[in-house]
Specification:
Structural class of chain A: mainly alpha
Helix content of chain A: over 70%
Shape of chain A: rod-shaped
Oligomer: homodimer
Number of helices of chain A: 8
Strand content of chain A: 5-15%
Distance between the termini of chain A: 103 Å
DNA sequence: GTAAAAATCATCCTAAAGTATGAAGCCTTT
DNA sequence: AAAGGCTTCATACTTTAGGATGATTTTTAC
């Protein structure tokens, strides 16, 4: 199929190829003419392009990369709490018993008398007695005052 | 207007002027070449040097600096005895009114409702209303819990 | 100017806190 | 063994705190 097509139109193909070659030759000659006529300018241009590229390459490769460091300070608040240092002296001075101190600590945690009683496995009345003696020793009238004073005196954290 | 245009396109204008000067220089060198025929190598060398420099300049001026963002976390330790730093975020989240916050602060100081009322020149009932709304917002049942939670959340010192 | 939020005050009621007093059991010290 | 402190518990009572609801005024936001 392909072979028969080639043999049939051999002359036409040959003519076409010759024409193409001729046009190509003409174009090439034209180009050569331009090149020959402007050989010097083109040479200079080539030099310029090559050395500009060289300059860019040198600059990019042989210099330290430009890095702009942006430092964003982010403050992180650390609730260190500051190690609690028990004020032993004040504690001694108040003369609180161990049970009273326990009650005071649970009061500071926000527990009610009933809850404290449950926590310590004693009756509500017992806690009331403890708290009364506690208030008396601490010279306060209410649990809120006791807690405030205890924190101020560093008896509890 | 004109000044801003100038400053805005400073690089372009500068480049244009440089190019013009360069062309002038080239023309002058060409003339010299005609006169001094032996300086061809020097001419080429000058071209190479100039365009290398141009390439370097271009690369340095027209490349964008890489931006590296470094986040430095700066820890801020908050000591127990140190300055109190209000936890604005938590305070906002609770949605306490200014009056409620006042009441809370006086509660933390160990004052009774009656005393708070006297301090703020309002009736006891008003303080009760405030405290009720306060407890509701803070999701607590008692003033001692409110004070404990407020101190824990750093809403009050 | 209207709607929403805040602040104020009141009444009634219940729950919790606090006072006063007494008492029993368990330690330690004298 | 007696004295004193600690813990426990109880009863009776007063005070304070807290809940529920309704209302008025003021401030704030749209």
């Amino acid at each position: 199929m392909a072979a028969s097509f080639l043999s049939k139109h051999k002359h036409i193909i040959l003519y076409g190829v010759c024409l193409a070659l001729l046009l190509f030759l003409l174009k090439w000659l034209e180009l050569r003419l331009i090149i020959i006529n402007h050989a010097f300018e083109m040479y200079i241009g080539a030099i310029a392009v090559i050395f500009t590229a060289l300059g860019i390459w040198l600059a990019l490769k042989l210099t330290k990369p430009k890095v702009r460091t942006v430092i964003v300070e982010k403050e992180v608040y650390v609730q260190h709490g500051g190690e609690f240092t028990l004020n032993e002296q004040e504690l001694q001075q108040l003369g609180l018993s161990s049970r009273e101190l326990e009650v005071l600590q649970l009061m500071a945690a926000g527990l009610s008398n009933q809850e404290i009683a449950g926590r310590l496995f004693v009756s509500l009345n017992t806690i009331k007695t403890h708290s009364s003696r506690l208030f008396e020793k601490m010279d306060v009238k209410r649990r809120t005052q006791a807690v405030e004073k205890a924190k101020r005196l560093r008896i509890i954290p």
